[in-house]
Amino acid sequence: MKIAVFAGDGIGPEVTAQAVRVLNALAIDGLEMVEGDVGGAAYYKHGHPLPEATLEIARNVDGILFGAVGDFSCDHLERALRPEQAILGLRKALSLFANLRPAKLFAGMEGFSALRPEVASAIDLLIVRELNGDVYFGEKGMRKTEDGRRQGWDMMSYAEDEVRRIAHEGFKAAQKRGGKLCSVDKANVLETSQLWRDVVIEVSAEYPDVELSHMYVDNAAMQLVKSPGQFDVIVTGNLFGDILSDQASMCVGSIGLLASASLGTRQTEYGTVGLYEPIHGSAPDIAGQNKANPMATILSAAMLLRHSLGLGEQADRIEAAVAKALADGIRGGDLGGNASTSEIGDAVLARL
Ligand code: NAD
Ligand code: IPM
Ligand code: MN
């Protein structure tokens, strides 16, 4: 079993270090870890945010633990050289099209949600976000119009096969959970979304046991704070899923708690090859201060064990240890406490 650790920028190295400590503590027989450079760190070292050597590692491992990328000092670079291209490039190169972002309120965390406790306590949802298409990967550009105005554009599109495969993931996830799937789109305005909705309805014929509903994304944003308990699985496009998942994180307390798995179709003898990362970014405002909450990354490592290495029991152990640390009052700055990144790592390790 071989996994890659791509720590990246900002708080990325700090939070992945804690997740690696947790993985090491499990002393998994035959587990090998290799490191690779991504993001701004890779740009400054090799001149590219996703060097060929890193891609080579990525193509030859069973799973990838990813920290975060993003460095404001690179924001002036041409887009192809910006740190964010590392994560976008890995998702595309490995065809990791299904991004699973679970949001569940941990026991005792009602008071930390941005929502009222009685509203927050009902949250147990999964966002299934499409990750290889949409406005993220369409043709884009910037130009001067004939009358001298600057214009920027990004082409939004989905082809039916792209919608079909993520719809299947949404339905299958719903079958394993509460049996409800809400497809989120903007079909009242966008052709991309009309196709999305049509295809999701077609696919639903294969899943008579799943209760399908549709919601416009603006309403979904509202419903997510009004009554998030109504959602089981949400399936949506790349951009809407990005935005709604950050919103969901504050409904359960903090962005420092939300993990994710990005999966494709490649199987190994252990599981599905995937990339695992917290949903947050490089948090430059707190980077290098031992302040970031590593729980989202630690929980991402648990997802890696479950989905890519077939080690569900070890994943359960990690998740239980994080839940216990929270129940015992261990809080990072994101939750109004003062536990440092490494102290949170210590606390999880002690409860493994
Ligand atoms: P961000 O998620 O990095 O930070 C948003 C806010 O949340 C900040 O106040 C930050 O301090 C806080 N925060 C985030 N993670 C935290 C944690 N683990 N513990 C405590 N607080 C935490 O989003 P941003 O500020 O919009 O973006 C910063 C950079 O990260 C940008 O360059 C952006 O492109 C990049 N980014 C990368 C990823 C990724 O690598 N997948 C994801 C999102 C943003
Ligand atoms: C995320 C991030 C990325 C995205 C950026 C950094 C490209 O926001 O993983 O949620 O938009 O997908
Ligand atoms: Mn995001």
What's the SSE blueprint?
Elements: E1 2-8, H1 12-25, E2 32-35, H2 39-46, H3 52-59, E3 63-68, H4 84-93, E4 98-104, H5 117-120, E5 124-130, E6 140-144, E7 150-154, H6 160-176, E8 180-185, H7 191-204, E9 211-216, H8 217-226, E10 233-236, H9 238-251, E11 259-267, E12 272-278, H10 295-308, H11 312-327, H12 341-350
Parallel strand pairs: 1-2, 1-3, 3-12, 5-10, 8-9, 8-10
Antiparallel strand pairs: 4-5, 4-11, 6-7, 11-12
Helix pairs in contact: 1-10, 1-12, 6-7, 8-9, 10-11, 11-12
Bound molecules: nicotinamide-adenine-dinucleotide, 3-isopropylmalic acid (IPM) and manganese (II) ion.
Structural class: alpha/beta
- Order of strands across the widest beta sheet? 2-1-3-12-11-4-5-10-8-9
The total beta strand count reads 12
- Give the uncertain stretches in residue-range form: none
Return the CATH class of the largest domain. Answer: Alpha Beta
Average residue-wise pLDDT: 97
